Q: What sequence folds into this?
C-alpha cells in the first residue's frame, strides 16, 4: 500500500498505462458475473477502496459493476424541502471551489483553466462568468449515483468526447486543464421555482469513461448522433436520481452570479448527497 502512496508511482501507474484500453478492459471485467471473476474483483475493490456498504440496499452483488452502481436503502440520503437550498448531488470529497474570476477557475491551486475550455458553448460561458463553482470528487468506494440538487428542469445535455485521465489530487497537480481533456457531459438546467440557470458537469476518468443519465438514452444518443448537444425537457425533483457513473469520478457544479455557495465548504471535506452546499438567493 505504501508503494502506491508515492505520488510519482501513483501517477505513473494510474495515468501512463494505456488509459483507453485499461478503461475498456476494466469495464468488461466489471460486468462479468462468473463467481471466479466477480468474487475476487469485489473483494479487491472492498479492500483497496474502503467501501462502506452499511447503507446499501443489498450487499450481494453479481458483478463488480453491481457494486459500483449500487442503490441505497430508502431514506439513506436526505434532501431538505427548502426551495432556497442547493444540495450536493452526490457523495463526494469537496475539491476546488469558489468564485469564477471572469471565466477563470482552478482545478487545484496553481492550476487554472478557462470555462470556455470545459464548456463548448460561448453563450453558456457568458452565463456563468463571475459566478461560482464547486468540484465534487467521487472516489472508487463511494456511492456512484447522483441526484438533482434542487427542483429543476434539464433543458439540454452536451456530450464532449475526450480522454480518461485519473482525476485524483495527484493528477490534478500534474496535468494542466485536466477536466477539459476528459470525457464529460454538460447538463444545462434551470431552477424550477426561480428560473435561474444551473450547470452540472459530470467528468469521466480512467476506468470510468461511462456517464449514464435518466433524462435521455445516453448510449443510443452517442451511438446514433455522436458527441454533441441533445435538447430535452426533463423535470426532476430535488433528490431524485439523475444518473450514475460506472466508477468513481467528478462532478463540477456551476452557479450564476446571484446564487451562492455555502461558507462552510472546506476543501478535502467529505460530504453526502443531500448536504446543503449553496443557496439560490
A:
Amino acid at each position: 500500500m505504501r508503494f502506491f502512496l508515492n505520488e510519482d508511482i501513483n501517477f505513473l501507474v494510474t495515468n501512463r498505462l494505456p488509459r483507453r484500453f485499461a478503461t475498456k478492459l476494466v469495464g468488461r471485467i466489471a460486468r462479468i458475473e462468473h463467481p471466479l471473476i466477480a468474487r475476487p474483483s469485489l473483494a479487491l475493490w472492498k479492500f483497496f477502496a474502503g467501501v462502506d456498504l452499511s447503507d446499501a440496499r443489498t450487499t450481494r452483488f453479481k458483478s463488480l459493476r453491481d457494486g459500483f452502481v449500487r442503490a441505497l436503502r430508502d431514506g439513506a440520503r436526505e434532501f431538505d424541502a427548502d426551495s432556497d437550498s442547493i444540495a450536493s448531488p452526490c457523495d463526494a470529497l469537496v475539491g476546488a471551489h469558489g468564485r469564477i474570476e471572469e471565466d477563470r477557475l482552478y482545478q487545484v491551486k496553481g492550476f487554472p483553466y478557462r470555462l470556455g475550455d470545459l464548456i463548448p458553448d460561448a453563450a453558456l460561458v457568458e452565463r456563468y462568468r463571475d459566478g461560482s463553482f464547486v468540484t465534487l470528487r467521487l472516489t472508487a468506494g463511494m456511492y456512484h449515483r447522483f441526484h438533482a440538487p434542487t427542483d429543476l428542469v434539464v433543458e439540454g445535455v452536451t456530450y464532449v468526447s475526450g480522454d480518461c485521465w485519473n482525476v485524483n489530487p495527484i493528477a490534478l497537480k500534474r496535468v494542466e486543464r485536466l477536466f477539459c481533456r476528459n470525457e464529460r457531459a454538460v447538463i444545462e438546467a434551470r431552477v424550477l421555482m426561480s428560473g435561474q440557470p444551473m450547470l452540472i458537469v459530470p467528468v469521466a476518468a480512467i476506468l470510468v469513461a461511462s456517464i449514464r443519465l435518466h433524462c435521455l438514452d445516453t448510449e443510443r444518443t452517442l451511438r446514433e448522433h455522436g458527441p454533441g448537444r441533445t435538447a430535452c425537457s426533463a423535470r426532476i425533483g430535488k433528490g431524485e436520481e439523475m444518473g450514475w457513473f460506472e466508477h468513481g469520478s467528478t462532478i463540477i457544479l456551476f452557479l450564476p452570479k446571484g446564487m451562492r455557495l455555502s461558507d462552510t465548504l472546506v476543501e478535502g471535506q467529505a460530504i453526502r448527497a443531500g448536504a446543503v452546499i449553496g443557496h439560490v438567493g
Remarks:
- Residues 72 and 168 are 25 Å apart (CA to CA).
